[in-house]
Amino acid sequence: AQTVTQSQPEMSVQEAETVTLSCTYDTSESNYYLFWYKQPPSRQMILVIRQEAYKQQNATENRFSVNFQKAAKSFSLKISDSQLGDTAMYFCAFGEADSNYQLIWGAGTKLIIKP
Amino acid sequence: ETGVTQTPRHLVMGMTNKKSLKCEQHLGHNAMYWYKQSAKKPLELMFVYSLEERVENNSVPSRFSPECPNSSHLFLHLHTLQPEDSALYLCASSHAGGEATGELFFGEGSRLTVL
User: Fold this and answer.
1) How many CB atoms neighbour CB B2 within 10 A?
2) What is the per-residue burial (b if ≥16 Cβ within 10 Å, else e) of B10-47?
3) Tell me: the pLDDT tens digits for B56-73?
4) How many degrees, rounded to 5, is the angle at CA A73 between CA A67 and CA A74?
5) What are the two backbone dihedrals, phi and then psi, of residue A81, each rounded to the nearest 5 degrees?
6) Which residue, A111, B5, B12, B91, has most beta carbons within 10 Å?
7) From the candidates A43, A45, A102, which should be mutated to test the interface with B, based on the most B CB atoms within 10 A?
8) Minimal Cα–Cα distance from A61 to chain B, Å?
9) Dist CA A105 CA A69 (whole Å)
10) pLDDT tens for residues B35-54?
11) Minimal Cα distance from B99: which residue of A?
């Protein structure tokens, strides 16, 4: 069965620093998608970034980028120039290309950006 | 209103009560989801409706009963709940067939406390 592991329950960094959140997954599939979602305190969960497994190029969205290592089954999220508004729970998720709605989620990493 | 709206935001109920959670989406999506979010645990998919038909039911106890009268509305009917059912219940929507390949849009959640 597929699993997603986020090994850092909580992290904190100073504003403007760069922080990397770790995510590893286990699957025997070759065609899948990986996601990072952000859940700010008492606010809606939103998609931060998405990576298709067949793409070798790492996805980037402004200050957010991923380091996708397919062979190692690793999918880390790097946040550059961190801002106070980045304080949130971050969830890594995995989905097979033909999964019919079943995403596998990690337990989340609580990220605190300190002023 | 835009996005995904959940009501009530907070609910306290006794074990013998009957209550309902409501979700409404204004995004033109045709798939809707109920997730259970407990602290320090991965999100648990409870129910999925696509084109108003239930397509996924992850062995959820019968004390939880979903209803999807149309593609914009989703309900979760609750009765004779247990204290361990206390959690944040998240509603999400997407284009049909899109959970693993597209983007989920979440509501802010309904915080349920069972006494």
Assistant:
1) 7
2) ebebeeeeebebbbbbeeebbbbbbbbbeeeebbebbb
3) 777 899 999 999 999 999
4) 30
5) 50, 55
6) B91
7) A45
8) 15
9) 18
10) 999 988 999 999 999 888 88
11) A101
- Residue A48 structure tokens: 């931060």
Place of tokens 């120039």: A81
CA-based nearest residue to A55, from A70, A75, A43, A71: A70
Task: List the single residue in A with minimal CA-CA distance to B38.
Answer: A107
Residue pointed to by tokens 């990072």? A36
Note if the bond before B8 is cis, omega within 30 degrees: yes
Residue in A32, A47, A96 closest to B104 by CB: A47
Cα of A81 to nearest chain B Cα, Å: 25
Q: Supply B33's token pair.
A: 């989801």
Residue A12, amino acid: S
